[in-house]
UniProtKB/TrEMBL annotation:
Mannosyltransferase involved in glycosylphosphatidylinositol-anchor biosynthesis. This is GPI mannosyltransferase 2. Keywords: Endoplasmic reticulum, Glycosyltransferase, GPI-anchor biosynthesis, Membrane, Transferase, Transmembrane, Transmembrane helix. It is found in: Endoplasmic reticulum membrane. Belongs to the PIGV family. GO terms for cellular component: endoplasmic reticulum membrane; mannosyltransferase complex. GO terms for molecular function: alpha-1,6-mannosyltransferase activity; GPI mannosyltransferase activity; mannosyltransferase activity. The gene is LOC101254228. The keyword Plastid does not apply.
Length: 514
């Protein structure tokens, strides 16, 4: 990279990221096709597709008013073998997403699957891939649309992870490592099939990237979309709350502006509400469809609750999800299956909290003590991360010349900027990493880990946590450390490769995985 400008390095790394992401998806799809051709599926019900209920419309009909396709209206397809291959690959939760895109929310349990994926699938099937319906049929086109959508979303999520990491870590070369690790993450099978992981990762990581750049309005829009993809998208409002807390504190006690403080608080409250509103709106939509207009005797039990939350009822009623409900002897194998990702997440949390305990305990209001690493200490992830040097900078190299592309963009005390960003002057004087910036990421990870371990089906942890950037920052740090890289690098890569192979084998053939 000698002699290259920062922009050239950025463009080169961006091309590498897109290349790795694209190749990793080709490998996953090839594995799916290979295992499907070599083995017989455990459950052969994937191709069953009864006609839609007459009283429902497709999910896209919510916007266009179009009726759902009727199976009886579909003429014979011209490529039945290709159609059958695509339809047979629609397994597990993919069945629900494709069915909702085709027929709408027909049954109560369908409301556990949020509408972002079905809406996007239905839109693609009616526009870009509509000419393929005579060749492979409408359901196969829906499946193909889902595959294309999620694989493309994964490539874009990888791009945004690299850009976010470059901002956080202040080094484009170091930012490349966690992005490559993400391209080969152990939940990769779910990023290449019709699941929510790719779209959620794209919206959440993309939203965090824009938030760190100070584009709060764009970030809020992206983070709000996560609430249409997965229920835990509401947790992303925590980033806005953290920003609002610090910005309002500075406005009130540094600038001593009462009016400015009220503006910051109101703006933060509105943005947070905007992020959680999609999930709330969908619950209201479910309540309207399932509870309004029926007699009291016919109403479902959750309709009569003081807080009629459909999602929680479905998760508990149909899937047995609840606090400590999974703590059973027969579930020990599933805890073992989830133990690698939970261990990595726990080590990530402990590592960063131990580095800067004052910062985390005070939620970023106190700076690190000098003996633990100053506020301007470099991020412990990278080139020479040994016992004495925890930073990514070499002794003879400073990243102060990285250029404007890696610097924070706007003054810290302006309301529209992220509260933990240093100003341009601070960046010039102290180009090192600011540990306060990790606090909301780690807090978010703590809540996610606790939810996965104590509430959810624990084996889902592998994909549930896979969109959390700190996991890849810490994993890359471990693999780059001279003391740890040989042993732990081998373990991490083996873990990723094993879960990719195992996942593509089991999941694609309708066997239980995670």
């Amino acid at each position: 990279m000698a002699g290259k400008s920062t922009a050239d390095i950025h463009h080169h790394h961006t091309r590498l990221v897109l290349k790795y992401a694209f190749i990793s998806r080709l490998v996953l799809i090839s594995l799916i096709v290979l295992w499907r051709s070599l083995l017989s599926p455990y459950d052969t019900s994937a191709s069953i597709n009864p006609s839609c209920l007459s009283n429902t419309t497709s999910i896209i009909g919510l916007f266009s008013g179009s009726n759902s396709y009727s199976k009886s209206d579909s003429p014979p397809v011209l490529l039945p073998r290709l159609a059958s291959m695509i339809e047979d690959s629609i397994v597990w939760d993919s069945v629900y997403f494709v069915r909702i895109a085709q027929c709408g929310y027909e049954y109560e349990q369908n409301y556990a699957f949020l509408p972002l994926i079905p809406i996007c699938i239905s839109l693609l099937s009616r526009t870009v891939f509509a000419p393929l319906i005579p060749f492979i049929g409408q359901r196969a086109v829906l499946g193909l649309s889902g595959y294309v959508l999620n694989n493309l979303a994964f490539v874009l999520a990888s791009f945004y992870l690299y850009r976010l990491s470059a901002i956080i870590l202040k080094d484009s070369e170091v930012a490349l490592r966690p992005t490559i690790l993400f391209c080969l993450n152990p939940a990769s099978i779910f990023y290449s099939t019709i699941y929510t992981e790719s779209m959620y990762a794209l919206c959440s990581i993309g939203g965090l990237y824009y938030l760190m750049r100070g584009s709060n309005n764009i970030a809020t829009l992206w983070l709000a979309l996560t609430g249409y993809a997965r229920s835990n998208g509401v947790l992303n409002a925590g980033y806005i709350c953290f920003q609002t807390m610090h910005t309002s504190y500075k406005t009130a006690f540094v600038r001593k502006s009462v009016g400015g403080t009220l503006v910051v608080l109101l703006s933060g409250a509105l943005r947070s509400l905007f992020i959680i509103s999609p999930f709330i709106a969908f619950q209201a939509y479910g309540y309207y469809n399932m509870c309004v207009g029926g007699s009291s005797d016919e109403m479902r039990p959750w309709c009569k609750a003081r807080l009629p939350l459909l999602y929680s009822y479905i998760q508990s009623r149909y899937w047995g999800v609840g606090f400590l409900k999974y703590f059973q002897v027969k579930q020990i194998p599933n805890f073992v299956l989830a133990s690698p990702i939970l261990s990595l997440a726990l080590c990530t949390i402990i590592h960063y909290v131990k580095l800067w305990p004052e910062v985390f305990v005070s939620l970023g209001f106190r700076e690190s003590s000098p003996n633990k690493g100053s506020v301007a200490s470099p991020m412990p992830l990278g080139r020479n991360a040994g016992s004495k040097s925890v930073g990514f900078q070499s002794e003879n190299r400073s990243n102060a010349g990285q250029g404007d592309s890696l610097r924070w963009r706007k003054p810290a005390l302006r309301e529209e900027n992220y509260a933990v960003q240093p100003s341009e002057d601070e960046s010039s004087e102290n180009p090192g990493f600011k540990p306060i910036i990790l606090v909301p990421f780690i807090l978010h990870l703590v809540v996610m880990v606790a939810t996965a371990f104590f509430v959810m089906h624990v084996q889902v942890s592998t994909r549930f946590l896979s969109a959390s950037p700190p996991l890849y920052w810490f994993g890359s740090y471990v693999m780059a450390s001279p003391r740890l890289s040989k042993r732990w690098g081998y373990i991490i890569w083996t873990y990723c490769a094993a879960y990719i192979l195992l996942g593509s084998l089991l999941f694609s053939n309708f066997y239980p995985f995670t």
